[in-house]
Amino acid sequence: MSSRREFITLLGGAAASWPLAARAQQPAMPVIGYLDTASASTTAHLVAAFHEGLSAAGYNEGRNVAIEYRWPDGDYDKLPGLAADLVRRNVAVIATINTPTIPAAKAATKTIPIVFAVGVDPIKFGLVDSLNRPGGNLTGLTQLNIEMEAKREQLLYELAPSTTTVALLINPSSSAYSEAATESAQSAARVLGIRLLVLNASTPSGIETAFVTLAEERIRLLLVSGDSFLVAQREQLVELAARHAVPTLYHRREFTAVGGLMSYGPPLSEAYYHVGNYAGRILKGEKPANMPVYQSTKFDLVINLKAAKALGIELPPTLLALADEVIE
Hints:
Elements: H1 2-25, E1 31-35, H2 44-56, E2 66-70, H3 79-88, E3 93-97, H4 101-108, E4 114-118, E5 138-142, H5 149-157, E6 165-170, H6 175-192, E7 195-200, H7 204-217, E8 221-224, H8 228-232, H9 234-243, E9 248-250, H10 253-257, E10 262-265, H11 268-283, E11 294-295, E12 300-304, H12 305-311, H13 317-322, E13 325-327
Parallel strand pairs: 1-2, 1-3, 3-4, 4-5, 5-11, 6-7, 6-8, 8-9, 9-10, 12-13
Antiparallel strand pairs: 10-12
Helix pairs in contact: 2-11, 3-4, 5-6, 7-9
């Protein structure tokens, strides 16, 4: 009887350990490090696009992949520390959204794959060897947003061709992007024969100060450069532009959707989708060195007629004819 009881006890103990052993043999869930420049609250719709791209590659958060999110809330000085933390956690791939995140991730690791969405030429800025064969641990998407800065300025100039000065608002904390944007806009200003006034803002109070300067200088036109901090402050920017009656052209549809006058640029959701998709493909075994950098060629001109009416602007028919979307 004693031997039988001991056998049953041993059998029960072994059975209880079977699920644990089976779980121990299952591969650990891969982890993606997600590094953005804004905050979770201002980019929820874009994070959804990232998830869609990831899902298209066969991965869904919580089911077969985990995601470690890092948000600096517009404070770019935090990015190196956030990137280093992801590396310490030994994530399988780092998804870097927006230009300022990329140098931080690149400096933190030479081995972990990095997928980027960038608005500048990735070759010129030393991210990849070539678009077709990146050659290192980085690949992703370029929307060549900088190259469109001159086009934006030309579109804005059509609203007031008699003007002598156009202002450009940049975030100096995003040094690589803001420098390139300023250079492109300066070149366009020279072609148009006008002066470019560059205004800096990296805080909400800085944006307020920029509009005070616009009023003092009696600047009639404003161009808002591409930057995630400025995107996060879109409602403040649109409200100030309306209050000061300054016709403004933005780089993303997010601005015209909340009442901005005009926007011209690539769809931001496309960038997030592509980064998610590439991250999933890397988890499946593809190497970033052999994954071509995707070049986005889609740029949308969006015009808000309600904003134009409030500003008392009669939009040129040629400009309306170019519009991909007119918000009424």
